[in-house]
């Protein structure tokens, strides 16, 4: 029986994540190369963790997804995991605000031999989303961008996704700030706006999974479109 009363620390979380990952996660060389190239290019250390990135790939395989929409490309780390799981005729559409980040990601996609599956739209995501059509619809939408706009991103994702499709929104817990009445920064308020909306949105069902690991205490929202 474990001692559930013992306080845990980020060192405990990191050790546990590294231990389980050592048994379950063997990133392909192209994933490792993309991570190294992103660091060398000066991109911020904000990429999805390896366990979550592999989860995204498994989700693509499980749903037999053919079209995936990603909001927030960065250096392409999570995009590569998802594109590897797509069938040869599948497509990942990924949106990135920064020209520099998009250029690094494009090079990473090319080096991974996946550029034929991936299309990057550069510019404000809300503008790029408005130009996308739900024909054919996307099967999965992954939102990992500025949390201030997670509600409009979610609404656009719902417009573009097929019934039964999945929308994931990262960075929902924010070290517990989302539930802290004293926290009122724009990112936290953006997450709260999304949660308030989903509470009364009868077109989706959703839950939140909390995560802990080397990147701290956070979580993601998992929603499915009903109709």
Describe the secondary-structure layout.
Elements: H1 10-24, H2 29-40, H3 50-62, E1 67-71, H4 77-85, E2 91-96, H5 99-111, E3 118-122, H6 125-131, E4 138-143, H7 150-160, E5 161-169, H8 186-200, E6 204-213, E7 216-225
Parallel strand pairs: 1-2, 1-4, 2-3, 4-5
Antiparallel strand pairs: 5-7, 6-7
Helix pairs in contact: 2-5, 3-4, 6-7, 7-8
Characterization of this structure:
This protein is α/β, with parallel strands linked by helices and about 230 residues long. The chain has one domain: Rossmann fold. It has eight helices and seven strands, in the order H-H-H-E-H-E-H-E-H-E-H-E-H-E-E. A seven-stranded mixed beta sheet has the order 3-2-1-4-5-7-6, with helices on both faces. Helix 2 runs antiparallel to helix 5 (about 100-110) and helix 6 runs parallel beside helix 7. It is globular and about 50 Å long. The mean pLDDT is about 95.
